[in-house]
Amino acid sequence: xxxxxxxxxxxxxxxxxxxxxxxxxxxxxxxxxxxxxxxxxxxxxxxxxxxxxxxxxxxxxxxxxxxxxxxxxxxxxxxxxxxxxxxxxxxxxxxxxxxxxxxxxxxxxxxxxxxxxxxxxxxxxxxxxxxxxxxxxxxxxxxxxxxxxxxxxxxxxxxxxxxxxxxxxxxxxxxxxxxxxxxxxxxxxxxxxxxxxxxxxxxxxxxxxxxxxxxxxxxxxxxxxxxxxxxxx
Amino acid sequence: xxxxxxxxxxxxxxxxxxxxxxxxxxxxxxxxxxxxxxxxxxxxxxxxxxxxxxxxxxxxxxxxxxxxxxxxxxxxxxxxxxxxxxxxxxxxxxxxxxxxxxxxxxxxxxxxxxxxxxxxxxxxxxxxxxxxxxxxxxxxxxxxxxxxxxxxxxxxxxxxxxxxxxxxxxxxxxxxxxxxxxxxxxxxxxxxxxxxxxxxxxxxxxxxxxxxxxxxxx
Lengths: 233, 218
Known about the structure:
The structure holds 2 protein chains of 2 kinds. Chain A is an alpha/beta fold. Chain A has 2 domains: 1-75 and 165-182 and 189-222, Rossmann fold (3-Layer(aba) Sandwich), CATH 3.40.50; 76-150, no CATH class. Chain A contains 6 helices and 10 strands. In chain A, the strands form 2 sheets. A 6-stranded mixed β-sheet of chain A has the order 6-7-8-3-9-10, sandwiched between helices. A 4-stranded antiparallel β-sheet of chain A has the order 2-1-4-5. In chain A, helix 6 (164-179) links the parallel strand 7 (152-156) and strand 8 (183-187). In chain A, helix 4 (114-121) packs antiparallel against helix 5. The longest helix of chain A has 16 residues, at 164-179. The mean pLDDT of chain A is 85. Chain B is an all-alpha fold. Chain B has one domain (2-209). Helices cover 78% and strands 0% of the residues of chain B. Chain B has helices at 2-13, 16-35, 48-70, 78-87, 91-111, 114-124, 128-138, 140-155, 159-180, 187-209. The interface between A and B is medium-sized, with 33 and 30 residues.
């Protein structure tokens, strides 16, 4: 599903990522951890076609993300720390806009309706997105991603601004999405519990892949990695 | 792309500036036609209708860039790249959708002065086909303003810079077209051609330059 080969990213003299080799299977959830400046956000943004790698190869479903960035974008969604840009739209209007834009791109996998998502995410439908708190804006961003229901979800510290109830709600929701076949790559700060959601946890430090280990089936909730068919990677 | 056009229309329609600029433009145009019914000396104006048309162009050249810079969502640089990733649309499609929405709204502003122009036509006894032809040519101005303002909004940060740049550029283009009068072309038609050319360039540039976020370490 996702494959990186000797992926390297430099910002001037700074090496943000160095020779990263990863394979992620369809329906797998990979957690990325590590200290600040480790390269998690850079890796996610390259996978999301938002940054151009300095060297190496990145493929999603066998498609090179540099050569066919726009083609790849229709298969994935990225939720970063930027938050949704409402421009005066209410929450319902914003989610409807996102759903309509993606449906128009032939993404027929837009599964739940806007009202279902609003209800489940417990969002104020008519409030302006720009007037929401950081936590509610993060809920809107996650709700939009779950509404799109793409083949790949790339989430950069998705629970950062959420309260514990919202963390539980979205962890469960993401677990369901993962079990329905969506591939997840989720970056977490050190110390954030990842093991109930992620099949594997990779640790990045100063741009290098330090470790990449499976989560014990007894800790994981939902479909274990062994049931996914690793041969698709 | 339809979803982006609809979003832009909703965003623009909610800005108070849109109503403000429409009322100001129509009031000043009506003020000219009704207060100076006999016509004031103006270059190129042979009757009240011609004079009103000249004033209409002048007012729109000032009002439309302000509305165009004030009303749409302010997207440039990384915002456009992220919007492209969210919608899975190319930056050129996003900008084209914004241009279509902006052109539609600015056209409505321009057409709002039609009743006043018809009054001037009746007073000056100008033929209806000429008024209709002039109306069609007038639509070249919203097209020019849409393309020019969006270009400035992508290039400079902030609405003030976009407004100043768009006002200066539109004024310069109109003055040049009015003075040179390209062979066989009305100023409105020439403005439309300039606007279309700029829109094509902007689309092509955006797909090359707005593929990725600014390259800085996160």
